[in-house]
Design brief:
- The complex is a heterodimer.
- Chain A is mostly helical.
- Chain A is about 70% helix and about 0% strand.
- Chain A is built from 5 helices and no strands.
- Chain B contains 8 helices and no strands.
- Chain B is mainly alpha-helical.
- Chain B has 2 domains: about 90 residues, Rna Polymerase Sigma Factor, Chain: A (Orthogonal Bundle), CATH 1.10.1740; about 80 residues, Winged helix-like DNA-binding domain superfamily/Winged helix DNA-binding domain (Arc Repressor Mutant, subunit A, Orthogonal Bundle).
- Classes of the chains: A mainly alpha, B mainly alpha.
- At the A-B interface, α1 and α2 of A face α1, α2, α5 and α8 of B.
Chain lengths: ~100, ~170
């Protein structure tokens, strides 16, 4: 550094306004809160949360393995009930009775 | 263990304040930059783990945030004009009139430098940082830092020569 640069570097700089300190540092708490909330939800019992997650995974795997699939498939292919269904049943019963009746 | 932000503030905020104020030439933006910086430290305390040169790290963070502030400001042309017109004092009050007029003139001369030259001049003159440290903080090559510093000093010398020669 030459004399000129030394002269410049000797000029003292302004300090930040004292009232800034509290404002700037109190700003921390506002941002820290959300992450604390998230952690406080999960952190007290991580094993319990893990076990619950494992149970759910087991349930999904069991459902997807096919034990419930036939029932769902059958339900999908079952005839939809309609107003004509009782008449159809009645007619079938009458025909069957006629066939079995020895008097005919 | 979370960092003691109060201690970090007391230790480094005066330097960061002067650096950011000199760079942005706006007290409001300087406040916003410092606030954002300390919010980042509060939300991501792990980023300080393993930092050897804390002042250098904070300067780099403050510089990035100040550039972001510049970009935000650039989208508002009227805000640029307002900031340019805003009188900013970066030096402490002087004990006598001659010294005060030199500090005022130095403040005006610094304002005429491009922001990056001003940042380098500030870090070398008032922070005592080497060009290698400045290069690391501002994320530029060390040669660029040295040459920009030379341009800045030449310009300051040209602007301040009459006043500087009058000083005792």
């Amino acid at each position: 550094m030459n004399d000129f640069e030394h002269q410049l570097s000797r000029q003292p700089l302004r300090e930040p306004p004292p009232e800034w300190r509290a404002g700037i540092l109190s700003g921390d708490a506002k941002i820290v809160e959300p992450s604390c909330t998230w952690q406080s939800w999960f952190w007290p019992s991580p094993v319990a949360w893990g076990a619950l997650a494992a149970v759910w995974v087991g349930v999904f795997l069991f459902n997807g393995s096919g034990s419930a699939a036939p029932a769902l498939l059958a339900a999908d292919h079952a005839p939809a009930s309609s107003p004509s269904t009782p008449l159809y049943a009645f007619a079938s019963h009458r025909d069957l009775s006629a066939l079995l009746d020895p008097s005919n | 263990m979370p960092p003691d932000l109060g201690h970090i503030y007391d230790e480094h905020a005066p330097s960061l304040f002067a650096f950011v104020l000199n760079f942005t030439r706006s007290e409001a933006e300087t406040h916003d930059v410092l606030q954002e910086l300390f919010l980042k430290l509060a939300t991501h305390p792990a980023q300080l783990t393993g930092v050897r040169d804390l002042r250098g790290y904070l300067i780099r963070l403050a510089h990035r945030l100040a550039i972001d502030a510049f970009r935000r400001r650039a989208s508002h042309a009227s805000a640029i004009e307002r900031a340019a017109a805003e009188p900013v004092t970066i030096f402490a009050p002087a004990p006598d009139a001659d010294a005060q007029s030199f500090r005022d003139a130095l403040g005006r001369a610094l304002a005429e430098l491009p922001p990056e030259q001003r940042a380098i001049a500030h870090l070398h003159l008032w922070e005592g940082r080497t060009f290698a440290e400045i290069a690391a903080a501002l994320e530029i090559p060390a040669n660029t830092a040295a040459s920009r510093y030379r341009y800045a000093i030449d310009k300051l010398q040209a602007l301040l020569r009459p006043l500087y020669e009058e000083l005792p």
